[in-house]
Protein: Flavin-containing monooxygenase
Amino acid sequence: MFRGPYLHNWAYKHPDKFVGKRVVVIGIGNSGADVAVEISRVAEQLEKPTLAFIGFLQPVEATIPTSELQSRWTVRVFKGLCKARVAHRVQYISYMDEIATELGVKPNLLSLFLWDTKLAMEVFFGPCTPYQYCLQGPGKWAGAQQAILTQRDRILKPLRTFPQYSMGYICHCTGSSPLVALGFIEEVLA
Structure:
């Protein structure tokens, strides 16, 4: 566990207090990159490259899951287990699958089908979510299986928050005909 000082980028003013120190900058986007570049000029230089810009490429879809998988991949690059590369604009699913394959975390559907048929069906036919990259390998998460199996319920839950009223109930409450009730519904939904 890290025991040294840490700060948010809003508290960062100048790189002087980082002269000769080992520094880790964690951030997504321009502010993280700006701070990392400034501090890299004065911080202790290590033998291996230790500067990575996570989330700087432009995924066509989700940035946060892409950045999470990039972070796991970057740790392996720093350890010398993967090769560094540069990407600019990428397709979300193919890029995630490419990194996941290199990390050894892309699920094998055949073995998944033999291990847990219901889970395999959800991964194959369900939405592509980053949970599937947490089922095995480095960064494995014990809750990934349950998260995948319950993701549809969590997606649909916000759509079930409004009570379902029948036309008869609305007519009774408003004391009006069905046409007036429809006008009431349109007004409420507008």
In short: The two ends are 52 Å apart (CA to CA). Confidence is low (pLDDT under 50) at residues 176-185.
